[in-house]
Amino acid sequence: KPALVVVPRSVLENWEDELARFAPGLQVLSLHGTQRHSRRAEIAGADVLLTTYDTLDRDYAEHYVDPEFGYVILDEAQKIKNAAVSTSQTVRKLNSANRLIITGTPIENDLDDIWTLFDFIMPGYLGDSAKELHERYDNDLEDLRRRIYPFILRRQIADVKTDMPKKEIADIYYDASAKQAAAYQQFKTQLKDDVEHKKRNYFESLLLLRQFCLHPALLGENFKFTSKYEQFKKLVAEKLAKGEKVVIFSQYREMLDIIAKELGVKYARVDGGVLNRKAEIDRFNNDPEVKIFLATTGACNSGVNLHYNCNNIILYDNWWNEAVDEQAIGRVYRVGQTKPVNVYRFITKDTVEVGMIAVQKRKQGIINAVLSVDSLAGKDLSGADFGLTEKDLQEIIQ
User: Fold this and answer.
1) The pLDDT of residue 248
2) What is the average pLDDT score of the chain?
3) Choosing a second label site near 244 at 20 to 30 A (CA), which of 96, 141, 149, 174?
C-alpha cells in the first residue's frame, strides 16, 4: 500500500527533491497538474504518492474514495485547522490506519486548532467536537497536556543542529512624531466612540489602528512620512550601503506596494497574487543586484528558502501569533545558514503595537506550556484564552 503525502503547492518540488535525496529507492509519483490524470495507471507501482491539498479536494470523489493507503501524511497540517472547510473534511475521509501530521504551528489561534489536528489522527480522542474539548480542558490545561504529549514529537533547530549561528531579535521602540501622535490619539478616540455606539467592534478598531501605525496611507491619510517608515528606511539604507540583502515581511500587500514604490531598488516579491513564486525566489537568491525580497507573511512563511545569501529580516508588522512570525524568520534562519541572523521589529511607543507584542508573547508562552513534556504545575496560566479575547482587545486599544 502506498503512502499518500499531502502538501501545499509551494513545497511540492521540495518533497520531490528530498525524497530523491534521502530515499532514492522509493518509487515516487506526483499527482498534480493536468498530467495527473494520465498517470493514474502508475499508482499501483508507486511507494509514495504526492499531491496538494487543493488537488486532493478536487479529485477525492473520483480517485480517493476506494484506495487504502499505508500511511497518510499531511505537511504544513495547519492547512486543515478549520474543521468546517472542505479540505479539512476531505482528508478525514481518506482510508488509512496510519496517519501523521507535520506542522511548525500546531496551535495558531486557539484550542480549536489542536482539536482539528488530533481529530484527523485519532477521531474522538479529544472529544467529538471543539466545543467538547473546551468544556473538558479550558480549566484544566495540564490534563490536556498529559493527553497530547505522548503523540507529539517536537524538534527545534537547536535540538538537531547545535552549531547554528546566532539569531538576534532586535525590538526597536521609537516615538511617533508629534503630528502623527496627535492624529493617532484623535483616530483612537473616534474608533472607541464608534465601538461604544455599536458602529464597529474592537477587532476592526484594532486592525485600523495597526494600519495607521504601519503607514497612514493605508487608510488614505495624507501624511508625507511616518516615524515607523522613516526608521525602517534608515535601516534598509544602512544594509544596502553594506551590500547586504534584506527580507521584508508585512501582512499587507498594500504596505509592500508602498515599500516597493518608495525604495526605488531592484526587488523580488512573493505574495498571494504572485503566480511564479519560484522565479522570484531564484532571482533573490541568485542575482547579486536584487537586494530586497518583499513578502506577505501569510503567503511566504513556509516552503521558501532565502538563507543562501541573506541574513537580515525585517518584520514590518507582527502576526497575531508569534509562531507564525517564527515560521517567517525560518525562511532565513534555517539549516545551511552560515552567518548570524538579524531580525528587526519596529514598535511605535504608546500605540496598539506595544500591546500586540505583549499579548503575542503571553499567548505563545501558554502554547509552549501546553505542548511541553513538562508538567504545568506551578505555572501561571492566567488569561489562558489562546485567541484574542474582547478583554485583550480592550487592553490593547486603551
Assistant:
1) 98
2) 89
3) 174
